[in-house]
Specification:
- The protein is built from six helices and four strands; from the N terminus they run ββαααββααα.
- The chain is mainly alpha-helical and 185 residues long.
- The chain has one domain.
- The longest helix is centred in the first third of the chain and has 21 residues.
- The radius of gyration is 16 Å and the shape is globular.
Length: 185
Protein backbone atom coordinates (compact mmCIF):
# COMPACT_ATOMS: atom_id res chain seq x y z
CA UNK A 1 0.00 0.00 0.00
CA UNK A 2 2.82 2.50 -0.60
CA UNK A 3 1.81 5.97 -1.68
CA UNK A 4 2.61 6.53 -5.34
CA UNK A 5 2.66 9.77 -7.34
CA UNK A 6 -0.27 10.18 -9.72
CA UNK A 7 -0.48 12.20 -12.97
CA UNK A 8 -1.14 15.41 -11.02
CA UNK A 9 2.00 15.05 -8.89
CA UNK A 10 -0.04 14.14 -5.82
CA UNK A 11 0.49 10.90 -3.98
CA UNK A 12 -2.24 8.26 -4.08
CA UNK A 13 -2.60 5.64 -1.36
CA UNK A 14 -3.94 2.40 -2.80
CA UNK A 15 -5.31 -0.26 -0.46
CA UNK A 16 -4.84 -3.88 -1.46
CA UNK A 17 -8.10 -5.36 -2.73
CA UNK A 18 -7.90 -8.21 -0.23
CA UNK A 19 -8.60 -5.67 2.56
CA UNK A 20 -11.74 -4.27 0.90
CA UNK A 21 -14.06 -5.82 3.51
CA UNK A 22 -11.95 -4.90 6.52
CA UNK A 23 -13.24 -2.54 9.15
CA UNK A 24 -11.81 0.85 8.21
CA UNK A 25 -10.37 1.25 11.70
CA UNK A 26 -8.03 -1.66 10.96
CA UNK A 27 -6.80 0.06 7.81
CA UNK A 28 -6.35 3.46 9.47
CA UNK A 29 -2.85 2.71 10.90
CA UNK A 30 -1.69 1.80 7.38
CA UNK A 31 -3.11 4.97 5.88
CA UNK A 32 -1.62 6.99 8.74
CA UNK A 33 1.76 5.39 7.96
CA UNK A 34 1.57 6.16 4.25
CA UNK A 35 0.40 9.75 4.78
CA UNK A 36 3.58 10.43 6.73
CA UNK A 37 5.72 9.32 3.78
CA UNK A 38 6.16 12.27 1.46
CA UNK A 39 8.70 11.01 -1.03
CA UNK A 40 10.12 7.75 -2.31
CA UNK A 41 13.26 7.94 -0.16
CA UNK A 42 12.22 5.93 2.86
CA UNK A 43 15.02 4.53 4.98
CA UNK A 44 15.17 2.20 7.99
CA UNK A 45 14.95 5.05 10.51
CA UNK A 46 11.87 6.42 8.76
CA UNK A 47 10.23 2.98 8.78
CA UNK A 48 11.10 2.45 12.46
CA UNK A 49 9.51 5.79 13.41
CA UNK A 50 6.44 5.19 11.25
CA UNK A 51 5.85 1.66 12.54
CA UNK A 52 6.34 2.85 16.12
CA UNK A 53 3.73 5.54 15.52
CA UNK A 54 1.25 3.47 13.51
CA UNK A 55 1.28 0.80 16.24
CA UNK A 56 0.12 3.53 18.64
CA UNK A 57 -2.74 4.37 16.25
CA UNK A 58 -3.81 0.73 16.33
CA UNK A 59 -3.49 0.68 20.13
CA UNK A 60 -5.84 3.64 20.33
CA UNK A 61 -8.26 1.88 17.98
CA UNK A 62 -8.47 -1.30 20.09
CA UNK A 63 -8.62 0.62 23.37
CA UNK A 64 -11.76 2.36 22.14
CA UNK A 65 -13.12 -0.70 20.28
CA UNK A 66 -11.61 -3.89 21.79
CA UNK A 67 -13.45 -6.32 19.49
CA UNK A 68 -11.27 -5.10 16.59
CA UNK A 69 -8.34 -7.07 18.03
CA UNK A 70 -10.39 -10.27 17.85
CA UNK A 71 -11.63 -9.95 14.25
CA UNK A 72 -9.42 -12.87 13.18
CA UNK A 73 -8.59 -11.47 9.74
CA UNK A 74 -5.15 -11.35 8.17
CA UNK A 75 -4.90 -7.61 8.78
CA UNK A 76 -5.99 -8.01 12.40
CA UNK A 77 -3.29 -10.62 12.98
CA UNK A 78 -0.64 -8.36 11.42
CA UNK A 79 -1.74 -5.32 13.46
CA UNK A 80 -1.94 -7.39 16.67
CA UNK A 81 1.55 -8.79 16.10
CA UNK A 82 3.13 -5.38 15.46
CA UNK A 83 1.43 -3.92 18.53
CA UNK A 84 2.49 -6.92 20.63
CA UNK A 85 6.09 -6.37 19.51
CA UNK A 86 5.78 -2.68 20.37
CA UNK A 87 4.33 -3.34 23.82
CA UNK A 88 6.83 -6.11 24.57
CA UNK A 89 9.64 -3.78 23.54
CA UNK A 90 9.50 -1.98 26.82
CA UNK A 91 10.89 -1.89 30.28
CA UNK A 92 8.09 -2.48 32.78
CA UNK A 93 5.28 -0.16 31.66
CA UNK A 94 7.47 2.24 29.65
CA UNK A 95 7.44 1.64 25.90
CA UNK A 96 10.86 1.73 24.32
CA UNK A 97 12.29 1.01 20.92
CA UNK A 98 15.72 -0.41 21.77
CA UNK A 99 15.23 -2.37 24.98
CA UNK A 100 12.88 -5.04 26.25
CA UNK A 101 12.25 -7.19 29.31
CA UNK A 102 12.10 -10.30 27.14
CA UNK A 103 11.95 -11.25 23.45
CA UNK A 104 9.23 -9.27 21.71
CA UNK A 105 7.72 -12.35 20.01
CA UNK A 106 7.13 -14.89 22.81
CA UNK A 107 7.72 -18.46 21.66
CA UNK A 108 8.62 -17.15 18.22
CA UNK A 109 11.62 -15.87 16.31
CA UNK A 110 14.04 -14.15 18.67
CA UNK A 111 14.03 -10.40 18.12
CA UNK A 112 15.48 -8.48 21.08
CA UNK A 113 13.49 -5.26 20.64
CA UNK A 114 11.28 -3.30 18.24
CA UNK A 115 14.09 -1.37 16.56
CA UNK A 116 15.86 -4.62 15.66
CA UNK A 117 13.12 -5.18 13.08
CA UNK A 118 14.57 -2.28 11.07
CA UNK A 119 18.26 -2.49 10.07
CA UNK A 120 20.47 0.38 11.17
CA UNK A 121 22.40 2.44 8.70
CA UNK A 122 20.22 5.36 7.73
CA UNK A 123 21.25 8.95 8.23
CA UNK A 124 17.58 9.83 8.32
CA UNK A 125 15.26 11.33 5.78
CA UNK A 126 13.45 14.67 5.71
CA UNK A 127 10.24 14.97 7.66
CA UNK A 128 7.10 16.79 6.62
CA UNK A 129 4.33 18.89 8.10
CA UNK A 130 2.34 15.79 9.10
CA UNK A 131 5.25 14.38 11.11
CA UNK A 132 5.79 17.77 12.78
CA UNK A 133 2.10 17.86 13.73
CA UNK A 134 2.07 14.30 15.10
CA UNK A 135 5.26 14.73 17.10
CA UNK A 136 4.06 18.15 18.27
CA UNK A 137 0.87 16.62 19.63
CA UNK A 138 2.95 14.15 21.61
CA UNK A 139 5.21 16.79 23.14
CA UNK A 140 5.07 19.44 25.78
CA UNK A 141 2.64 22.16 24.59
CA UNK A 142 5.25 24.84 25.35
CA UNK A 143 7.73 23.43 22.84
CA UNK A 144 5.53 21.96 20.09
CA UNK A 145 5.24 25.16 18.05
CA UNK A 146 9.00 25.37 17.57
CA UNK A 147 9.44 21.73 16.65
CA UNK A 148 11.23 20.47 13.58
CA UNK A 149 10.80 16.77 12.91
CA UNK A 150 12.74 14.66 10.46
CA UNK A 151 12.93 10.88 10.33
CA UNK A 152 16.18 10.83 12.28
CA UNK A 153 17.79 10.07 15.65
CA UNK A 154 16.43 13.31 17.17
CA UNK A 155 12.86 12.25 16.43
CA UNK A 156 13.62 8.75 17.73
CA UNK A 157 14.88 10.33 20.96
CA UNK A 158 11.72 12.46 21.27
CA UNK A 159 9.57 9.41 20.56
CA UNK A 160 11.45 7.49 23.25
CA UNK A 161 10.81 10.29 25.77
CA UNK A 162 7.08 10.42 25.07
CA UNK A 163 5.43 7.37 23.61
CA UNK A 164 2.01 8.96 23.24
CA UNK A 165 0.18 6.49 25.50
CA UNK A 166 -0.31 6.64 29.25
CA UNK A 167 0.61 3.59 31.36
CA UNK A 168 -3.05 2.63 31.83
CA UNK A 169 -3.54 2.72 28.02
CA UNK A 170 -0.51 0.49 27.45
CA UNK A 171 -1.80 -1.99 30.03
CA UNK A 172 -5.32 -1.85 28.54
CA UNK A 173 -3.98 -2.60 25.04
CA UNK A 174 -1.86 -5.45 26.46
CA UNK A 175 -4.91 -6.94 28.22
CA UNK A 176 -6.96 -6.69 25.02
CA UNK A 177 -4.16 -8.57 23.19
CA UNK A 178 -4.11 -11.09 26.07
CA UNK A 179 -0.50 -10.36 26.95
CA UNK A 180 0.88 -11.08 30.41
CA UNK A 181 0.72 -7.76 32.29
CA UNK A 182 2.23 -8.92 35.60
CA UNK A 183 5.38 -6.83 35.08
CA UNK A 184 3.70 -3.65 33.84
CA UNK A 185 3.53 -1.85 37.19
Amino acid sequence: MPAAPNDNGRRDILVNDRYRFEDFRLISPLIFHEILHHDNKSGPTEELILHALDSLVFAQQIISTPHLAAAGTELTRIQNTVLMARINSGIDSHLTLRAANAPIFPNGIFVPNFSALYPEGSNGTPGNIALVAIMGNMQNPETKNSMIADFDSDTLARLYENQGLAINQIVRAAVILRLNVDNYY
